[in-house]
Amino acid sequence: MVNLLWVLMIAAGAAVAAAHGRIGVVTDAALASARQAVEMMLGLVGVMALWMGVMRVAEEAGLIRLLARALAPVARVLFPSIPRGHPALGSILMNIAANLLGLGSAATPFGLKAMQELQTLNDDPGTASDAMCTFLAINTSSVTLIPAAVLALRAEAGSINPAAIVGPTLVATCCSTLAAVLADAALRRLGRRGRGRGLAGVGRPGQAGRPRGGLPRRA
Question: Which of 22, 171, 208, 218 has the fewest CB atoms nearer than 10 Å to its CB?
Answer without folding.
Answer: 218
